[in-house]
Write a structure and sequence with these properties.
Blueprint: H1 2-23, E1 32-42, E2 47-55, E3 61-66, E4 72-78, E5 84-87, E6 92-97, E7 100-106, E8 112-120
Antiparallel strand pairs: 1-2, 1-8, 2-3, 3-4, 4-5, 5-6, 6-7, 7-8
Length: 121
């Protein structure tokens, strides 16, 4: 009988801690921050517009790419050894370092192949 009493006390304390933790969450919630818009010129003479965004708590970064033919890609930030790398987990990669960027797409061998070398305008 005493065993159940202690179980109820422990469960009640756990529930109380969970409720208090929820009350302490940010009242404003999360928001989307547009960091910067950058125009790049490709080695083929095309222009790519890259809009960089992040969530207000810095938990998630992504880029929206707009190509001259109207194609658009939204890519999440991924781990990179150098620079900033963005991927869609399927077939596209955007890698920036300094004022340069590379747009790649997977080929038939499932390897990234460079489509455009870009320079910031």
């Amino acid at each position: 009988m005493k065993h159940w009493f202690f179980v109820k006390v422990i469960l009640s304390c756990t529930l109380l801690i969970a409720v208090v933790s929820c009350i302490n969450l940010k009242k404003d919630g999360l928001s989307l921050k547009h960091e910067i818009s950058v125009e790049y010129k490709t080695d083929k003479g095309n222009k790519i517009i890259a809009d960089y965004y992040k969530i207000s708590d810095n938990s998630f970064d992504f880029v929206h790419l707009l190509f001259p033919d109207g194609k658009e890609y939204t890519l999440r930030r991924a781990v990179s050894g150098s620079g900033a790398r963005y991927i869609d987990d399927l077939s596209v990669e955007w890698w920036t370092k300094g004022s340069s960027a590379i747009f790649s797409r997977k080929n038939d061998k499932n390897e990234f192949e460079i489509i455009y070398n870009c320079s910031e305008i």
